[in-house]
Fold this sequence. Notes:
alpha/beta
Amino acid sequence: MKNDGDVVCQPKLIGQFVSEVLHYNGQYAYNSYSMGRLGGSPCIFPDYGDNTQAAVFRTYGPWWQHCESAFPSFGHRGDFTATDFVIFQYHTPVLAQSVNVYEVYCPGFVVKIYGGYAKKSYDDKIQLSSVQWRLLHSRRPQPEPHRPKLSTFNLTRDYKPVNCICLEFDCSLAEYYTEFDAVELIGTEYIIPNTNLKLSEVLNDKAIESSVDDIVDGLDAVTFSVPESNVFANIPDTLGIRIFSYLSLKDLSSVTCVSKQFHFWASDPSLHREINLQPYWHLVDDGYINDLSENVHSKDWKINSLSLAWCCKLSPWPISTYLVTCGRYLYRLNCDGISSNCASGLDLGLLVDRCPNLEEFILRSANATVDIGPLAGLKKLTRLSLNSFECSDQKVLKDIFASNQNLRHLSLDQLRPPMVDPKDCFILMKALVDDCPLLESLILCRRYMSDEAIQLLGDLKHLRVIDIGWCQTRGFNSVNFSQSLSVVFQSNPAMYRKIFITAVRSVDDRTVRTIAKTQGCLQELDILGNSLVTLDSVQAVLDECQQLKFLDLSYCSQLSEEEVAKLVHRFPSVNIKRAHSTLEQETKYQELLISSRLPLISL
């Protein structure tokens, strides 16, 4: 590039690590294994193994998605397969060339990379709503060998500045939690073409047009230049609408421009009862939600299921407008992974007032603070997930339980701060058991639990899924806690399909043997990190629970690597998990798995 003074400006190649983690949909924990670990340069790589300093998502594999406690998927997803995302900010805007992901455990599950430029607000905070995301890389998940991996992704060059990167992961095929250490952005220094312009002026709407038009083009089209085809004119409307029911939301929007006939079919209200915007999270902004509200009103769309999952560009106000206009039809609303500003500002009182028929609601947003008290005004909830945010007063949960006695699925996964008073734990559990007797799944990860509170679960006679992973029993009688768990399983024989008692340190052989004796229909069991469990009780579970498909024995220190490897060989229909903290341990275990395929030696 030459200037008037014949001075040549050579763009400088810059490599930079994450300056701030802006947003994500979920993480394994909020202290260790958190997304916040991704700031700065690598601290683990090139070491390999499970490490508390790495960033780890909440789930992996098909186990969580296929469980009864999972929020049901609806609407067309097209080729969208991602299960997790995380958004980073970098200090210097660049013309992006590549991204390096430092993967330290179970690598290979990055599937898409988006880039964009984020403006700052008056208080010097990043505005995710201002980012115009562009897809820079896409691929299928590619599971890698058990080795550390510096994954380099070459990006599509569009010659627009990037200071934010979003990674999408598809962990549904992962054999264990994928862990990564750092993310590096490589690119050339962005030089503003006209020195009289500020960067914000270069990035105006004319320079970067909103790609939301990709999914809303044609919704209001009134003129068509393509002549009607006799072939399509002879197709009955019912058949045409049925064919169009297989199209994604984006494709439906596109075909409206083809002809009047296509416009009529694609706009049929029956095709717009379930709207899933998650695949288009990077496009959906406030303007789109306002347009959606208008279409619902003008075209008589009665949307009963709406997913705003991952739509981190949204602010709370257009959602409120939509609820005022169309909330009376909703019975399912998914707000998983919306921004913390949106979650904190969401008018739950308005939600209750305008959505009296709401039956299923999920709200997950890291770093948000939410007053959930107004939810007690709902009367028809059957599924409620309140995950990962800070709740100003969890005692109001009792009122929510009392108002929704048909509640069947409840998740309070990592709801903060955890109750520490044993009396509060007991009162809350007592209210849940008394008011929600039809409960089928219960997720209470990372909370304080007393043995008295746990024992109350035995009164839930329809409960099939229980996850109390990482619940703390500190200050309580651990022997009584283990006994209380045993009483729960004895009270409901052959009822449980999934039991996750991950790292509940008081779990011992008595608990596991009780599971083996009473839960013959069990399909998933996680006893990771329970050092009091021995081989005899584990083998009893494998012998007695004939439907078992998943068993996590990671960090059960009383079980040797050789014993676990032989169990893997002896019970091939069960997916037995064993995590390792070093490459040496992982390599030795893989060798044991191979050797265990030789003639079986009795355990």
